[in-house]
Amino acid sequence: MIKGTPERIAQRRETIINACESLYQTMSFKDITLKEIGNAVPFSRPTIYNYFETKEEIFLALFEREYERWNADLEAILSESEPLTKAQIADRIAHSLEKRMQLLKLLSMNNFDMEANSRQELLTSFKAAFGKSMRLVRGIVARFCPDMDDAAVDAFLYAFFPFMFGIYPYTAVTEKQSAAMRDAGLNFRQTTVYSLTYACLTRLLGTTI
Fold first, then answer.
1. Do 7 and 67 have their domain in common?
2. Fewer CB within 10 Å: C terminus or N terminus of the chain?
3. Per-residue pLDDT at 2
């Protein structure tokens, strides 16, 4: 059992997650180790094991925090007092995602291994944040698109959320990848999170750009 006040425990957890987040800006998932994270926190590395057993658990906590941040934006959309058109829904959600580049980057990773190497209670907490995202998007569509029945909303959700896994690779292309595509004769067109997401949403919602 972790010792300390709830505030201290939460602070230590945030410090560890923040250290992982900082490393993730310049390093890949595979290159980040618990040792690297331990070197970036102001307490001893063994202390990390009081909160997280694996680096996958730390990344899962970072992932959960990104969903929570997106959820705050989705709640703001859902609480808008004026009716929204389908094009406006697409605009609002696309803008909310362009601010969440780290969420999209995490989505593009091998989430199966991350989840498999995390304890059940941490995975459950993560799934709760993810589930809230789905409920909020469902709420937005159901509220502002009364012409869509439950089956249509379900079809929308199970097309849009899998689509999100592919946004980052199409919008964050490295020079090495660009050079490889040029050498391969691939006519790749760079795009943005907003434009890619907006185009997808308008089509799924049955409107035109």
1. no
2. N
3. 65
